[in-house]
């Protein structure tokens, strides 16, 4: 059932349906809404408050009046009207109106007056603002998920297994820090962009990784976080189509996400890469990932960190069977990665690839060189990798000890159970 009200076609629905519609619209439109408002009022905190006010108005009105034909435009108009009302209530109305409110009352809804390019610019400004280096990484992640991912503080807290008040404080402090530092709502100058873009990409990938391999808790994966990070990456690729590392990151996430259905067993237990049923890998995501990788390489990003990691993931994606994996190429790619983005974790992964390509004894020799590395002191995958190589060499008693140490270091219950199972299996093989 529908009714025509003014120029908009309104769909009349029940109150529960309207509430679900509001929630769905908010998840889709909130980033654009907040970005557009932030450009106008020049303050992220105020922009989010205005967007939340518009959301409340929708929750109050849509059950009575129906869902507008263009819900995003309705929310923007409601928020703009609230902004104008706020300005008018201030004593210095004229000065503020000229400074940040010129034309607010006269502007039309986004679908009628705002160009796609302007919306894209607003989103890009919001990405760089949420990931500004004045904020801690934890604050960047929380703010990015809040204003770009459209997640509630409850959802963010649940995803990262921290109390909801902690997330709320991080978001509040982040907005205050941005305001106190006078951070402009703008895309940084060209000479500042590479460093800032690295922070943006790092935050998005951190969100993806937390969903792909949860650091703590009872679940091996949190697919919703993977989906949010992938969506943010795709948006960023559309906003910055000439940046190779943006496409490199998207390629990496697409290919890794393609394995999601195969990474857990019937009871949620982890399934390691070489044991996965590759028929469950999502071929559409693999094709999208390979296309993004080709795009990144064509833009000159072949030897950049995310593109190299995507190329490694592509080697797995192209192998129909585990034994078809080109481990020699993977080892070479990790060696290249160690040159452009050196880290002990990259060296550990390089050792794994060397062990697969040239035998466990060679891999173990490289891993043993990392045992005293301070950065890996409490990293559970170091003893896990060492245990795997020892088991392949028939040194089962030593392997058991390594798997038990790895189990003591991980904070993920599913991973701990897997490692203890491997320790028991090694013990059973001990003469």
TrEMBL record:
Keywords: Sigma factor, Transcription, Transcription regulation. One of its GO terms (molecular function) is DNA binding. The keyword Transcription regulation applies. The keyword Electron transport does not apply. Residues 33-91 form the RNA polymerase sigma-70 region domain. Pfam families: DUF6596 (PF20239), Sigma70_r2 (PF04542), Sigma70_r4_2 (PF08281). GO terms for biological process: DNA-templated transcription initiation. Residues 196-296 form the DUF6596 domain. Residues 128-178 form the RNA polymerase sigma factor 70 region 4 type domain. InterPro entries: DUF6596, RNA_pol_sigma-70_dom, RNA_pol_sigma70_r2, RNA_pol_sigma70_r4_t2, RNA_pol_sigma_r2, RNA_pol_sigma_r3/r4-like, WH-like_DNA-bd_sf. Belongs to the sigma-70 factor family. ECF subfamily. This is RNA polymerase sigma factor. The lineage of its organism: Bacteria, Bacillati, Actinomycetota, Actinomycetes, Pseudonocardiales.
């Amino acid at each position: 059932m529908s009714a025509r009200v003014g120029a908009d076609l309104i769909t009349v629905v029940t109150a529960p349906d309207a509430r679900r519609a509001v929630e769905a619209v908010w998840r889709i439109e909130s980033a654009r809404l907040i970005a557009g408002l932030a450009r106008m009022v020049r303050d992220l905190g105020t922009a989010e408050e205005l967007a939340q006010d518009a959301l409340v108005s929708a929750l109050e009105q849509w059950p009575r009046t129906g869902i507008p034909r263009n819900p995003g435009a309705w929310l923007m108009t409601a928020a703009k009207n609230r902004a104008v009302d706020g300005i008018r209530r201030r004593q210095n109305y004229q000065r503020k109106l000229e400074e940040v409110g010129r034309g607010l009352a006269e502007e039309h809804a986004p679908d009628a007056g705002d160009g796609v390019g302007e919306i894209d610019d607003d989103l890009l400004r919001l990405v760089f603002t949420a990931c500004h280096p004045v904020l801690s990484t934890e604050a960047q992640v929380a703010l990015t998920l809040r204003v770009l991912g459209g997640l509630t503080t409850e959802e963010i807290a649940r995803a990262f297994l921290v109390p909801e008040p902690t997330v709320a404080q991080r978001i509040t402090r982040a907005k205050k820090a941005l305001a106190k530092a006078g951070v402009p709502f703008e895309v940084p100058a060209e000479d500042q962009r590479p460093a800032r873009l690295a922070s943006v990409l790092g935050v998005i990938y951190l969100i993806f990784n937390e969903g792909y391999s949860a650091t703590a808790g009872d679940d091996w994966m949190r697919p919703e976080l993977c989906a949010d990070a992938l969506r943010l990456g795709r948006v960023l690729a559309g906003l910055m189509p000439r940046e190779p590392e943006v496409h490199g990151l998207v390629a990496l996430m697409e290919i890794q996400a393609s394995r999601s259905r195969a990474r857990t067993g019937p009871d949620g237990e982890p399934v390691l890469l070489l044991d996965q049923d590759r028929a469950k890998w999502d071929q559409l995501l693999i094709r999208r990932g390979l296309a993004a990788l080709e795009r990144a390489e064509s833009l000159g990003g072949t030897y950049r960190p995310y593109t190299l990691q995507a190329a490694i993931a592509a080697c797995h994606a192209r192998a129909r069977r585990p034994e078809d994996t080109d481990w020699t190429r993977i080892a070479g790619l990790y060696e290249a990665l160690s040159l452009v983005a050196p880290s002990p974790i990259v060296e550990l992964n390089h050792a794994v690839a060397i062990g697969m390509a040239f035998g466990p004894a060679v891999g173990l020799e490289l891993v043993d060189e990392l045992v005293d590395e301070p950065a890996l002191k409490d990293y559970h995958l170091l003893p896990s990798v060492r245990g795997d190589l020892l088991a392949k060499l028939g040194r089962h008693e030593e392997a058991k000890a390594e798997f038990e140490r790895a189990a003591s270091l991980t904070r993920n219950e599913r991973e701990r159970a897997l490692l203890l199972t491997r320790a028991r299996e090694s013990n059973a093989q001990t003469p």
